[in-house]
Write a structure and sequence with these properties.
Belongs to the major facilitator superfamily. Allantoate permease family. With 499 residues, the protein is mainly α. It has 20 helices and 2 strands. It has one domain: MFS general substrate transporter like domains (Growth Hormone, Chain: A).
């Protein structure tokens, strides 16, 4: 590591090149500096006492820090996220293990149990986004995770539909902090070139959760069939289921300077909320989440029943769902690696969605006698989350200004909730066992998602070109510590969007 003197900024003349108001940036940034970092990013605390010096992190130090961060953070995030998804799939396993009869579900009540989780998630998503900004990120997330685990175990005590409604709603409330919290943690500790693969890794534990959950559920079902059980098998499913030194902390913060977005700011800024609401990308992300998660909400809650519709037994459906999780794991990890390796997260992720579309077409088009072919089609659909995860990583990489980032993350996950609420409702009881209308709806949704994905890619390319034009203007001068001033991505001409 070496320290080099930073240059003092010269007065800048305003320009209005390419939708980037440099004069506005200068005024806003200088106002921040006059406030002695009170309104700037938390990262400036790491550099107290180092005025006039700029820390450069050499390659060896960078690798050492990355190894420490990966070793301490990734295992915990992966484990929690795997259990997070297992929570969602337990209802699908329970659906073929007797829960409908035991708690007296009739008509479309099972569909509503699938949706009610997301009503709780939806109701608490924006409040939890604000709390993630105001409170210590790690402690608040940990508290929500612990409470969520306790509530999940309570499902085993459910006696009726009303009790199941309450449990599912509050599961959604306390799970609402997990995904946005992890997205924020990833943006704080990893550079842009590292974020896509890391988000892909911890999100891939959805697939590991499905693998683990399917094997556990199958083992329980077989064991109960052979030896009996004191309680119903679906209840067993619900029951089973200090990082761096001061110097390293400073270096770790300096390491992510290249992100041009700091590591956090606890002050709510109305202008950033307004900017998020008028940014086309906020709504493109929201639209994608809604449309993509209609299929997700349906498949997550009905995949066991879908496999049964292929001609397999209920017990076999628990085991045969396992490879679907493996497909998701492989697709997400490969996509995350290739997206970061070639700087094309969006285009790489679209391959997974195309694979899923082909898989669903196979399910619809193949004759009922072709059980194996339709099962392979189901496995192919499990590559569908790759664009959702890529866009989640872009919330980390492409949205700057902490109030704006938490707002966009909240809207993205509100869209996720809306889609998952709608999803189970497209699987109508009268369409069982084939659910053809639901399958056709899924194909249409994924086709629309592809178009949205390509629009987002086009928009970011266009904005990067305009920012490059603004920086090339002779009157442009980069501000000192500009990356730590909690500027938004549109305010900061140095900010480049990841594709």
């Amino acid at each position: 590591m070496e320290k080099v003197d930073s240059e003092s900024p010269a007065p800048a003349a305003p320009t209005t090149a390419a939708e980037v108001d440099i004069g506005s940036v200068e005024k806003h940034a200088n106002d921040k500096m006059l406030q002695h970092s009170h309104d700037a990013d938390e990262a400036l605390k790491a550099f107290s006492g180092l005025e006039g010096e700029r820390i450069e992190v050499d390659e060896a130090t960078n690798k050492r820090l990355l190894s420490i961060i990966d070793r301490h953070m990734m295992p915990l995030m992966c484990l929690v996220y795997g259990m997070n998804y297992l929570d969602k799939t337990t209802l699908s396993y329970a659906s073929v293990m007797g829960i409908k009869t035991d708690i007296g579900l009739t008509g479309d009540q099972y569909q509503w149990l699938g949706s009610l989780f997301y009503f709780g998630y939806l109701a608490w998503e924006y409040p939890t986004a604000r709390l993630l900004q105001r409170m210590p990120l790690g402690k608040y997330s940990a508290a929500c995770i612990i409470i969520w685990g306790c509530i999940l175990c309570c499902f085993a005590a459910v006696k009726n539909y009303s009790g199941a409604i309450a449990i599912r709603f509050f599961l959604g409330v306390f799970e609402a902090a997990v995904t946005p919290g992890f997205a924020l943690l990833t943006s704080q500790w990893y550079t842009k070139r590292e974020q896509g693969s890391r988000v892909g890794i911890w999100f891939s534990f959805n697939g590991w959760g499905q693998i683990f959950g399917g094997l556990v559920a199958y083992g329980i079902a077989v064991g109960v069939r052979k030896h009996g059980s004191a309680i119903e098998p679906w209840k067993i499913v619900f029951l089973v289921t200090g990082l761096l030194t001061k110097e390293d902390w400073t270096l770790a913060v300096a390491r992510v300077r290249v992100n041009q977005q700091g590591i956090g700011n606890k002050h709510f800024k109305p202008y950033q909320l307004k900017e998020a609401l008028v940014d086309p990308m906020t709504w493109a992300f929201f639209f994608y989440a809604v449309v993509a998660d209609i299929p997700n909400g349906g498949i997550t809650n009905f995949f066991s029943q879908l496999i049964v519709s292929f001609g397999y037994t209920q017990e076999q459906s628990l085991l045969y769902g396992v490879p679907g999780g493996a497909v998701e794991v492989v697709a997400l990890i490969i996509n995350g690696y290739l997206g970061d390796r070639f700087g094309q997260r969006l285009l790489c992720s679209s391959g997974g969605l195309m694979c899923a579309i082909v898989g669903m077409v196979l399910i619809v088009a193949l004759p009922l006698s072709n059980n194996v072919g339709r099962l392979i089609g189901y496995y192919m659909t499990q590559a569908s989350p790759t664009p959702f995860v890529a866009l989640l990583s872009l919330v980390s990489s492409n949205v700057a200004g902490y109030t704006k980032k938490t707002t966009v993350a909240a809207f993205y996950l509100i869209g996720y909730c809306v889609g998952n609420i709608i999803g189970p409702q497209v699987f109508r009881p009268e369409d069982a066992p084939r659910y053809v209308p639901a399958e056709i709806t899924i194909i249409v949704c994924w086709g629309v998602c592809l178009l949205d994905l390509y629009f987002i890619c086009w928009w970011y390319r266009r904005q990067n070109a305009k920012k490059a034009e603004a920086r090339a203007d002779p009157s442009y001068v980069r501000l000192e510590n500009q990356e730590w001033l909690d500027l938004t991505d549109t305010e900061n001409p140095e900010f480049e969007y990841t594709l």
